[in-house]
Amino acid sequence: MAFKPLASFILSKPTAGFLKNVSKAQNVRFLASVGATQSENYEFIKLTTAGEKQNVGVITLNRPKALNALCNDLMKEVSNALDSLEANTGIGAVIIIGSEKAFAAGADIKEMQNNTFSHCITGNFLEHWSRVSKNLKPVIAAVNGYALGGGCELAMMCDIIYAGENAKFGQPEILIGTIPGAGGTQRLPRYVGKSKAMEIVLTGAQITAQEAEKMGLVAKVHPVDKLLEESIKLGEKIASNSQLITRLCKESVNTAYETTLAEGLHLEKRLFHSTFATKDRKEGMTAFVEKRAPKFTNE
């Protein structure tokens, strides 16, 4: 599926001039709305780009009547969009965002209500959801409103979580007779520790954005109407670095969650050594010594 960048529209010079004359809250709503016409090939998401250099991809979950419940087709569209953004060399970071009311209120219960064990096994149910966590470029979850069940798991698949002040996180699967199935019992303890994760998973309780930040689940909390704007700023900052070196950094940090300390330190050292074979490492250090901005080529 071809990706249609909005380089000629979002934050182009005429548009940027217009944005100076409106409030920041209006900026966010404007950014979110202008991309709608560019997503004709998607039913459940919107795909746009943002930032002064159009180097941040924005995937907006778009099932408002269902509070962005994560149906199978929506997650397939997210996967397809990530494929497009990953192949686009002009994109350095990705944002996944929902609405002000809900990032994603959970998986689509009606869709999976009549699933059977054999169907789940033979169909490898939920396997394609892992595409988000395997994305090679950094992914930012911008969470307003509810991020429950699969919505919380989707946010945790991302590399960084920014939350609006109204965000609510939780794994309420136990309340409907099942358990988290897309990483909730595995990623949550790694974010907040065993005791807190047990409390959340075993009670189905929801936690606020402020509580989530204190636990380490969320990196920063922003006003609701500034969440997208701040997420784009973060994406632009990440995208300004070498995509090659960013990929190595992401791999190294993720390894810390999946291996022993000794193995992680060994990999980190080797990846650090490998940067000395890149043009971007040489350019970065040379630019630092010469007191100028580096010009990375991702080589």
Label this structure with key terms.
alpha/beta, 2-enoyl-CoA Hydratase, Chain A, domain 1, Lyase 2-enoyl-coa Hydratase, Chain  A, domain 2, 2 domains, six-stranded mixed β-sheet
Describe the structure.
- The protein has 299 residues and is α/β, with parallel strands linked by helices.
- It has 13 helices and 10 strands.
- Helix 7 (184-192) packs across helix 8 (194-203) and helix 11 runs antiparallel to helix 12.
- It folds into 2 domains: 34-239, 2-enoyl-CoA Hydratase, Chain A, domain 1 (Alpha-Beta Complex), CATH 3.90.226.10; 243-290, Lyase 2-enoyl-coa Hydratase, Chain  A, domain 2.
- The radius of gyration is 20 Å and the shape is globular.
- The model is unreliable at 1-37 (pLDDT under 50).
So how many helices? 13
Task: Sum up the overall morphology in one term.
Answer: globular
Q: What Rg, in angstroms, do the CA atoms define?
A: 20 Å
Indicate the structural class: alpha/beta
Helical coverage, percent range: 40-55%
CATH topology name of the largest domain: 2-enoyl-CoA Hydratase, Chain A, domain 1
Q: Average the pLDDT over all residues and give the rounded result.
A: 86
Keywords: Fatty acid metabolism, Lipid metabolism, Lyase
Pfam families: ECH_1 (PF00378)
InterPro entries: ClpP/crotonase-like_dom_sf, Enoyl-CoA_hyd/isom_CS, Enoyl-CoA_hydra/iso, Enoyl-CoA_hydra_C
Enzyme class: lyase
